[in-house]
Amino acid sequence: MIEVITLAAGFLLILIGLYAILARRHILRMIIGFSVFDTGLHVVMVSLGSIRGRTAPIVDDAVPAIQAINRVADPVPQALVLTAIVIGLGITALMLTFALRMARSRRSLDIRSYKDLKW
Amino acid sequence: MVRKLGILLVVLSVGGILGLLFAAYTPVTELSGPAAHYARHGAEELGSANLVTAVVVTYRGLDTLGEVVVLFLAATVIGLLLRNAGGERGAAGLPPSEILSTGAALLAPLVILLGVFIFLHGHLTPGGGFQGGAVIAVAALLQMLGKPGTRSSGRILHLVESVSGLTYLALGILGIFLAGGFLDNRILDTGIPGRLVSAGAIPIIYSLIGLKVGTELAGILGGLRGEAGGRNLEESPHD
Amino acid sequence: MMETAIAVVAGAGMLAGALVAVMGREVVTAVIAAGVVSLLASILYLLLSAPDVAMTEAAIGSGLTTVIFLFVLHRIRQVTEPGELNEKEIRESQDGA
Question: Domain ranges in chain B?
Answer without folding.
Answer: 38-80+97-225
